[in-house]
Every structure is written in structure tokens, then in C-alpha cells.
Amino acid sequence: MPVEIERKFLVQGDRWRAGCTQIHEFRQGYLMSHEGAGATVRVRIFGDHAFLTIKGAKSPSRAEYEYPIPPADAEEILRSLCGDRLIEKRRHCVPHQGLIWSVDVFSGSLAGLILAEVELSHPEQPLALPSWVGPEVTADHRYRNSVLARSTTPPREKLKV
Amino acid sequence: MPVEIERKFLVQGDRWRAGCTQIHEFRQGYLMSHEGAGATVRVRIFGDHAFLTIKGAKSPSRAEYEYPIPPADAEEILRSLCGDRLIEKRRHCVPHQGLIWSVDVFSGSLAGLILAEVELSHPEQPLALPSWVGPEVTADHRYRNSVLARSTTPPREKLKV
């Protein structure tokens, strides 16, 4: 089973910007995600690419099945079947000690929220945290994108950072 | 937008069997379908083929996006992410006056249920009903496969036929 092992953190300050090597604009929506837990079906568009992704429930190791689909289909599915469960974010790739961190800067109703994610090879993999990384939120369902997609404001903790 | 226009009927007797030209065994499951209405995400396996299918809510015309996926993925998704929302049925292809009818004989907890479906090119297309077709259930959510998949018995009307 293909598995995504991911850890997720809040972000402190903007020192991460200095290390950014690449930027992608993501638009993504969710078909019928459960409240908080459960599997999700995501449609994501970035540049000329679009993907349909099924993710299992468990964090930080989640089953993940991803398939490329025609961008025109993805646009229609986002528009007609994802309701208002949409996310727009700018993903910044920031290499740090051999891993690529993804720093996602959200816009729209989630403006102000910035999350850093990193994919690991196995759950116990030692992780060198960059200095700009804040509290870990891997296990906090409120920070799952499928949950954020239904939110009208960023989770409250973000404001403390 | 790719659209599936489908009408669905109960089946009376088994005279349809004489016209059957092909049989496929289907196993399919659903990721997070809503109660009764709403979009669905289906995983279907038949023979060496597997498909991931997103369907919109509206009957008889529903948006439908279908993508082939590796059968091994489909097996895993069925097993690990569809819970007990599974359907097993034997599909019989029965040509009638220029259209191919699909007569689905369900098994497992839905044993005894037989439904006939036919795909149309447009919603108002005149339809010559075979003599073995019973009451139409196109608009009856209980007969949606995503709803049947959560049922432990066939809908009650079936028993009257």
C-alpha cells in the first residue's frame, strides 16, 4: 500500500523565505470528506497538472493513492462537486538538511495561516527541525486540509504564533 | 462535462435471461457517499480492470468522471477504505431495440435484488421498455448503488415484484 508519512508544523516568522527554491500555486477541493477523521478524496490543480488523490485516515502515516486526471475535468469537479470545500495556497519548497519542506501560505478565508509539512520515509525517521518551525500539529485534525477547506477562519492557535 | 444519463427499473421474472449476450462480475465499493443524495466516489473491479468513478448527485443525468486505476490499488482501496460499503453483482448485458440493457443480479446481503439499467444519450430519449421491465426506480435514492452498498437487505418494494 502506498503510504504518505508526513509531519506538519506551524511556522514562526518568515526566515524560511530565504531558503525557498520553488513556488507552486495550488487550488484544491474535497469530495465528501468526513468531519475530522476518515478517508478523503482530493482534487488538486497546479500549473498544467491535476491529480485525484485518495488519502486514508491515519496520521502521520496515511494510505495515499494519487492519479493524474485531465485538468479540464479537475476544474469541473472543483467547480461543480466540491461545493465550498476549497483551498487556495502557495506552496514554497524549502530544502533543509536533506529534506524538502513545503511551506504553505494559505489565502482566501484562511489568509494568515502558514503551515510547514515534510514527508518522511518512515514514521520514526529523525527530523532536524528548521529554526522557523513552530509547534507540531500533525495529530491535530483541525489542520488537515480537508478540514481547513470547510473552515471560514484559520484555527485559533495560529494567532498565538 | 461528461454526463451519465441512466434510467433504472425493477425486473419482473427472468425472461431477460434469454437475451443475455455477456456477463461481467462486478465488485465495487464507495468512499464516503452521502446519505441518499450527493456526489459519490466509487471503486469498481471487474476482470482485470478497475476504475475510480466520481458521480454527481442528480438523476437521471449525473456528471460522471471515470479513470482507470491499477487493479491492485483498487483491491486495497476496497479492502481498507470502503468499510462495509461493498456491492457484488453479476451484470448481464441484454440488447433490446438498439440499446444495451444492464441487468444486475446482486449477491451477498442484497441477494434477491435484480435491477435493470439503461444508458441514454439525452434525458428525453424515447425508450422502448422490454416486457420484463417492472416499475421505474430512477428517482428512488434507495436504489442508488451507493445507498444499496450500505443496506443489509434489498429495499422492500423489491419483494412485491
Automatic annotation (TrEMBL), chains A, B:
Q: Which CDD domains match?
A: CYTH-like_CthTTM-like_1
- Looking at the record, the residues that make up the CYTH domain are 2-150
Q: Name one Pfam family in it.
A: CYTH
Under the heading InterPro entries, the entry gives: CYTH-like_dom_sf, CYTH_domain, NeuTTM/CthTTM-like
Q: Which SMART domains match?
A: CYTH
Q: Which SUPFAM superfamilies match?
A: CYTH-like phosphatases (SSF55154)
Q: Which sequence ranges form a coiled-coil region, renumbered to this chain?
A: none
Cross-referenced PANTHER family, in alphabetical order?
SLR0698 PROTEIN
Name the UniProt record assigns to this protein? CYTH domain-containing protein
The record lists the organism as Roseomonas elaeocarpi
